[in-house]
Structure formats: structure tokens, C-alpha cells
Description:
- It is a single chain.
- By secondary structure, this protein is an alpha/beta fold.
- It has 2 domains: about 25-170, Four Helix Bundle (Hemerythrin (Met), subunit A), CATH 1.20.120; about 180-365, Translation initiation factor eif-2b, domain 2 (Rossmann fold, 3-Layer(aba) Sandwich).
- It has helices spanning about 15-20, 30-35, 70-75, 85-95, 105-120, 125-140, 150-180, 195-205, 225-230, 245-250, 275-285, 355-365, and strands spanning about 50-55, 60-65, 185-190, 210-215, 240, 255-260, 260-265, 270, 290, 335, 345, 350.
- The chain has a 7-stranded mixed β-sheet with strand order 5-4-3-6-9-11-12, sandwiched between helices. Strands 7-8-10 form a 3-stranded antiparallel β-sheet.
- Strand 4 (about 210-215), helix 9 and strand 5 form a beta-alpha-beta unit.
- Helix 3 (about 70-75) crosses helix 4 (about 85-95) and helix 4 (about 85-95) crosses helix 6 (about 125-140).
- The longest helix has 30 residues, at about 150-180.
Amino acid sequence: MELCNPYHEDRNVSQDERDFNPSSVTFEWLRQAESASLYGGSEDYTRPVLHHVRSWGREVVREKPFSVIHEFDAWRKNPELAEAVAAIKALTAVIKRSGASTMMGLEVELKEASDALKAWDESSISLSAGCDLFMRYVTRTSAIEYEDIEAGKARLIERGEKFGDISQKARRTIAELGKDFIVNGTTVLTHGYSRVVIALLKLAASEGKDFNVVCTEGRPDNTGAEMAKELVPAGIPVTLVLDAGVAYMMETIDMVLVGADGVVESGGIINMLGTYQTALIARSLKKPVYVAAESYKFARLFPLDQRDMSPAPRHVDFLVPLPQTVRVENSARDYTPPQYLTLLFTDLGILTPSAVSDELIQLYL
């Protein structure tokens, strides 16, 4: 599939053409982040967070120490926010609360906060990628050279907030791009719980399309069952199947649609354990495999095989007691190489796996 170059300044593509051309790439995410202007308000973003306590009958105002981890955790509790977006919000708060007297000092402060967030969960690909992209687009600007710390800080806050807002809208953009691939009579197989996949399926259903969804169970944490519960209120017929029943069901499936924990440089994806075998079975029966993933999940990783990834173990319960000599393989995810994927629905546009490396270069350079 030939893709439109999002960096070509002479593009003259109408909105209608963009809506109906699935191969066009919209790069609003980068364009808006790069075009943010100086913050025009007078609000003081350097104020400490205060809280009121009572001491011997008197109300005393004390400064509450700011923690980027606590801020991130507070945003993360919002079920509609992905981890990467929560990290973007938390890092923007670091700028607002910073007491740095120079832009260089603020950049160091942000780097330390970003490193702390990535260390909080070293296995999270989207969290790490979100922090890296935030640092790339927010701090690598002319604001770093500002002599006026307040003006420079306002510039970074503007960019951080715009970056967060655009990232939040990514799910809707992907749903709009991917819904046209679902037609009446389609049976879709999903694996794992994905908010962006849910958004895409719900949007297609809201337009009156008649289709069915088959969800894998998602052992051991029942992600597929949670997925099914989300889809039923939207009027979507859902079938739940055991993870081991993917091959059994595949001949009745028209397309596979999954999310991703991370999209890597090869164009492959890292996702919930079982995604790889699902894609293998789909490929053998000539069924398309589509991936819905936000661009803040694009990571500078190049796994060579299933073991060439950071460990991500999860607890597994069994109904029967096992001898201590039995080793349990409890990896939470696997790597699906690009040759088993058909297309990726992203907020940058609809991409072939081979186009991902080009997008990563543009994102991180």
C-alpha cells in the first residue's frame, strides 16, 4: 500500500479525500505539538500544592510535596486514560510545579521525572515510549534557549498540554479510520482487552453495522471476558471462546482485530500472550490481521525473538495443586513479527508494517 508522505508541504488533500482514503496519513499530532504558541495567560504554574491540616484546633496550611509518581498514579486511575497519556499529564505537572531558575535546570528536572516514571514499571512499553516522546516534543524546542524562565516554562506547558490532548484524541481518530473495514455480516476475532479496539467496534455498531465479535477468554486475568462485557451494551453480538479454541473458531472468522502494548521498529507488535499464535493461525487460513494502536505506543525496540524482550511475568492460578518441580511459564506477552500482520490502524494513518520504521524515524529524530 502506498502511503501519503505526512511531511510533504505541497499536499493538497481535501478532508473528504482524507476520510475515504485509508492510506492517507494524518500527522495532526506532530503538527499541533510543533505549532504550539506561547501561553497567553497569567496563571502562576510554579506555585506549590497546598493542603489544609488542623493542629491543636488551628488550621495550618502546609506545602504538600509533589511527586511525579503520585501524580501519574492519580491520572492512571481514570479508566479512559492509557498509561502513556497519564505519564504525559504527570510530566506536564512537573513543569507547572518546577522551581527551576533556568531552562537547563528544568530540562534536567524533567529528565529525572521521566526516568523515575520509566523505572516505576520497566516492563511497560507504552509508558516508556510515552515518556520518550514527551521529552522529544516538549523539551527539544526553542523554549530551552529562552532567557526568561517564565516565558519558556509557559511555552513548555502549552506544548505538554496540547501533546496530552492530542494523545487522548488518538483513540477516536483510529476508530474513524478502522470502522470502514467492518461491513455487514463480518465476524471479528479479538484477543485481549484493548480500549482502542472497543472504541472502533462501538463506533461501527453505532453506525448500524451488523457484525459479530468473538472474544478469546484471556486467561489468566479474563481480559476477553471484560472485553465481552464492554461490547454487549453496544448491541454487539459476542461469543466467548477458550484461548485454546482459536484454531477451532478461525474458519468462521473474517478478520482478526487486536490492540498492542507496543509497536516496534520492525513493524511487529508486542501484545498479550497468545497474539502471536492467533496471527499464525489467521495467516495459515488467509485471514487478515489488523492492529489498532496509538502512536505513543511506537517504541524504539527491535526484538529478534520471543525471549528478546523485558520480562513481564504475571500470576497464574491453577485449579489443581502442582508439584514444586513443575515450572510455570507465566509471561504476559509475546512478539508478533510483521509478516503476520496485514495493516495497522494508528492516529498517524493506516500503515503497512513496513511503513512503521519510517514513522518511528520521524517521531524520534
